[in-house]
């Protein structure tokens, strides 16, 4: 069969995190690995009400095909909310829906990247993004980051290096708010600095804001201002999703971007999946129309805020002196850097069978292979009691090795 | 922006049929253009019952992410039904679900086709397939067909021609049952003959069976036997979908194929959309588990059988002497070849404003640009009365030009 495969297919690999799935998702394991939102936050009662009303009104039509760019009313609602909640003004022509932000990622990448083109990502970076770029045989270049964003000097140097090697630097990919995996949030200065580099070096910026609405108490949403509104030059593609704030299984995300690029994304989506699930779009549209979204997101914020606080307490109790961490200001992830010389991937394999605790080792997130002493703890799907016990035990095991 | 686009994006075009959408879908028009199944056939009452039971049992979990390859129980149910209904034996490793067959088409194409690789398609061919191959810059080669299948001599000649030009012949794509757009069904002889050519010429076969279950009275399903069971050599990728027999808006299709290829499809799907809509998969799984599928499909067959008969009656009344057609034995489409020298694309533009009747001109389905005197009439979404009046008027207008 090998002889029939495309060049893309020959390089496709399952990520290390994927390979760990079977190991870390065993039911007897306290898992800080799963990056999914907590199903308790999904408003199933409200969806049920909407479902009944929809089917009474439209009968079978809610199961029919819909248009490629997305339900036109949902596009309007998303544009309206984008302006209200994130201060992004995008025209109809600059807006498209996708079947989840993973599809958005692939569509954006397909219309922009040829094999060998360079994409600049943070160290560490979201695995789903890295895999998307690699599946298209793009060159994924890691850029150092601090807690307040991408190291712009390192970015400049890397761009120039790529260019000097004859490759084409094209895209900067970043999750500026509560990044997966680091939990870090970019400073306003870093955001505008990035746009400056993009302008100077003639690059596009792909701003993935999957987590920006999940800010915790104490954060002024103004700090989370997306890059899009400052984007006089039309260089930013902004993506966000209903997956974390509402429900991922409905598979609906949205993209605001330059009209010319959005038009190509639509053409790519035509053959990628023709249209996004109609039922999913309609459930979300009605949820927005009924004014249920903002109070709902407020509850979701509170839910994760409490979880994050529980985890921070547990870390302070048991990780003090053996690790460095910073409680995130939002999102689903706690990033931890161990002070001792511990390879967290090996460590995971050593402890999981006996102690039934799982996390994601940090190194797969680093495209340059670094980060061996880091790990990601997701707090979204673990009860406060298990956070306490699991993190406690983990701290003990780390301390024994430090 | 142009300078940022990938080579794929630069060739992406909206198909002529897409461009006609606005024109032919006006509410005041009797449209034989829409290829979608009729929403009246979607079992919304049964889905509502299932939805209530699911949410009572699993609450928010029905809105959570699911696994990339597809819900494991639905995969089992699809394998079981594939064996029962189509006599296809496929292992778990040879089975994957996709977010609709359009996604299946793109995933299969992405793992197999490099730019310039040749795909052999029928003349005429399904537009969604042609667009998918073209978006990946494959070379799409049209092969003559008869009412009983692909002309295998022409196929052999085209394969050798492609090879002599230094390109790589890779894939034969076909819809052997009630093809979109021609409505034709391949003979058993043609099916086995195609496999022979594939073996001799070392090609893969992509069998798209979107319509095979929608056979009308008088057809023995044995005639519709898929190529997969005869596929000793592992050359056939078989795809089918719940879109026509159940509901397209749920976006669920399935693929049976060689294990090595299915594994790559799964890797490609990981970055294409991570997972198919969970709710859609669960609605279908329960529908199957409750034994509702076979009686439902039986009703759907009857529905389209009656529509097709109504169209055939109308054609006999008004197209006799000016056109050639054959009532299809299943599916959603009536294909018509005009005897006179009429360009159906021009004809459509001439009549639509005044007479408010629409159809799809045949030429966009022909990758070699032929077929100017053909058209596709879809009977799925038009009432019997409007079929009668619309086809009658159309016949009158054609007669005036013949």
What secondary-structure arrangement, pairings included, does this model have?
The structure is a homodimer of 402-residue chains.
Chain A: H1 7-11, H2 16-24, E1 30-31, H3 44-58, H4 72-86, E2 95-98, H5 101-112, E3 118-122, H6 127-135, E4 139-143, E5 145-146, E6 149-150, H7 152-164, E7 169-174, H8 188-201, E8 204-208, E9 236-241, E10 253-256, H9 259-272, H10 278-289, H11 293-318, E11 323-325, E12 333-338, H12 344-355, E13 357-358, E14 360-361, E15 374-378, H13 384-401
Parallel strand pairs in A: 1-13, 3-4, 3-7, 7-8, 8-9
Antiparallel strand pairs in A: 2-10, 5-6, 9-10, 11-12, 12-15, 14-15
Helix pairs in contact in A: 3-10, 5-6, 5-9, 7-8, 11-13
What's the gist of this structure?
The first copy, chain A, has 402 residues and is α/β, with parallel strands linked by helices. Chain A has 13 helices and 15 strands. In chain A, strand 5 (145-146) and strand 6 form a beta hairpin.
């Amino acid at each position: 069969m090998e002889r029939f495969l495309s060049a893309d297919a020959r390089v496709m690999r399952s990520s290390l995190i994927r390979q760990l799935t079977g190991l870390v998702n065993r039911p007897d394991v306290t898992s800080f690995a799963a990056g999914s939102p907590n199903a308790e936050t999904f408003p199933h009662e409200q969806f049920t009400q909407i479902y009944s009303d929809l089917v009474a009104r439209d009968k079978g039509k809610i199961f029919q095909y819909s248009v490629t760019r997305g339900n036109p009313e949902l596009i309007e609602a998303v544009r309206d909310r984008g302006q209200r909640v994130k201060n992004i003004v995008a025209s109809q022509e600059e807006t498209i829906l996708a079947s989840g932000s993973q599809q958005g990622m692939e569509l954006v990448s397909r219309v922009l990247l040829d094999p060998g083109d360079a994409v600049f990502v943070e160290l560490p970076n979201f695995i789903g993004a890295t895999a998307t770029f690699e599946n298209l045989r793009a060159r994924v270049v890691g850029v150092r980051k601090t807690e307040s964003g991408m190291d712009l000097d390192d970015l400049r140097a890397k761009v120039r290096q790529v260019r000097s090697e004859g490759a084409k630097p094209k895209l900067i990919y970043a999750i500026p708010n509560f990044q997966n995996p680091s939990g870090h949030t970019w400073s306003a200065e870093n955001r505008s600095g990035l746009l400056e580099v993009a302008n100077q070096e003639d690059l596009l910026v792909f701003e993935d804001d999957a987590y920006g609405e999940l800010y915790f108490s104490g954060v002024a949403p103004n700090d989370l201002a997306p890059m899009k509104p400052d984007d006089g030059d039309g260089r930013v593609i902004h993506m966000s999703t209903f997956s974390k704030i509402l429900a991922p299984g409905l598979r609906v995300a949205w993209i605001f971007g330059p009209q010319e690029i959005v038009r190509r994304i639509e053409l790519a989506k035509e053959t990628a999946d023709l249209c996004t699930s109609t039922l999913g779009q309609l459930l979300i549209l009605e949820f927005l129309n009924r004014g249920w979204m903002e109070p709902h997101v407020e509850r979701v914020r509170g839910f994760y805020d409490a979880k994050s606080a529980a985890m921070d307490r547990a870390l302070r109790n048991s990780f003090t002196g053996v690790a460095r961490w910073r409680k995130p200001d939002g999102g689903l992830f706690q990033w931890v850097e161990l002070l001792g010389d511990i390879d967290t991937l090996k460590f995971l394999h050593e402890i999981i069978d006996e102690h039934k605790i799982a996390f994601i080792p940090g190194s797969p997130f680093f495209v340059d292979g670094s980060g061996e002493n880091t790990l990601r703890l997701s707090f979204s799907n673990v009860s406060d009691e298990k956070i306490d016990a699991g993190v406690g035990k983990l701290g003990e095991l780390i301390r024994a090795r430090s």
